Amino acid sequence: MHIQSLHIQNFRIFEDFRLEGLKRVNLFAGKNNTGKTALLEALRLYMAPSEDSVYISILANRGQYSGNTNSDWSSFFNRRTTGKTGDTFFRINGRLEFQRKEQPNIPSPQFHLFWDGTENPYFMSNANGKSANTNPQDVAVFLPFGGEKAFPLLKFWDKIALTPLEDDVITILRDTILPDIVRFDINQERTLVRLKSEPNPIPLKNLGDGAQRMLQMAIALVSARDNMLLIDEIESGLHYTVIESLWQIIFEYAQKWNIQVFATTHSYDTVKAFTYLLEDDAQKNIGAFFRLQPIRGGEQIVAVPLTFEELELSLTSNFEPR
């Protein structure tokens, strides 16, 4: 799995968005309302285009899921295209295409989706009344911003426990935020960790938000082998001193396990630590940095790629790379 380019039309904030030069580890920065989260949403749909639960999860994460198909579905389309005549599309790299026409049509075997604002769109034909808590059946591994309940930790842990991947999770935790961890255990009620410095297991929550976020990060990473890993606000809950070690681990495991990573950030320190990794000639061809920004009076979002040299210059000259 390695996407080299993306083309998104009329989805969320993106009216006609093109992204070229994607690499194994991709970092996206930008001010608020420039489409960082929407980009990850588009990739989730790209990987699971016909899965109702993923659409519902995306709507619920934004507080847009009411169970009313017509109003919920409309929020996926770019607001500037609403009411225009003719066809509008959401397409990513030719693999996934959404289509809205003035008159309803029957979906084709190529998974074209038609919607006229009144009929139920095909993908949610059975979705009315479904709970927003439905476990999303993502194909990509998605680590959202938003706390412990937003990530299905136990779902992934059940596939990792008592396998060599459990050792990898412990190694990642030890190399980043919990150097004296011995082991841990997860169930429906709590997560316990055993530390060398503590005589008895203690709740992970006692160690702070950073420890919980890093456990999620480690489990998401080892679960994404031969797959795509999407991380929203990668720095969330983590002290800036941990970020450089985290990037080193992501670069290492992405290559080792054939993972393509897409991460977003608001953090200057996160961008700076990412740049340090690119100083190594062996890493330059692995990582790519993009700044999302508006043009044309703020009506169009574009992705501006920055080379290592451009990124380094922006940091040393105090130019805002985000």
Describe what you observe in this structure:
The longest helix is centred in the C-terminal third of the chain and has 17 residues, at 240-256. The model is unreliable at 83-88 and 93-129 (pLDDT under 50). The chain is an alpha/beta fold and 322 residues long. The chain is 33% helix and 22% strand. It has 3 domains: 20-48 and 224-322, 3-Layer(aba) Sandwich (Rossmann fold); 69-137, no CATH class; 145-211, no CATH class. The strands form 4 sheets. The chain has a 6-stranded mixed β-sheet, sandwiched between helices. It has helices at 36-47, 52-61, 69-74, 153-160, 164-176, 209-223, 240-256, 268-278, 281-284, 308-316, and strands at residues 5-11, 14-20, 25-29, 88-92, 96-100, 141-143, 181-186, 191-195, 202-203, 228-231, 260-265, 287-295, 300-306.
Topology:
Elements: E1 5-11, E2 14-20, E3 25-29, H1 36-47, H2 52-61, H3 69-74, E4 88-92, E5 96-100, E6 141-143, H4 153-160, H5 164-176, E7 181-186, E8 191-195, E9 202-203, H6 209-223, E10 228-231, H7 240-256, E11 260-265, H8 268-278, H9 281-284, E12 287-295, E13 300-306, H10 308-316
Parallel strand pairs: 3-11, 3-12, 6-10, 10-11
Antiparallel strand pairs: 1-2, 4-5, 7-8, 8-9, 12-13
Helix pairs in contact: 4-6, 5-6, 7-8
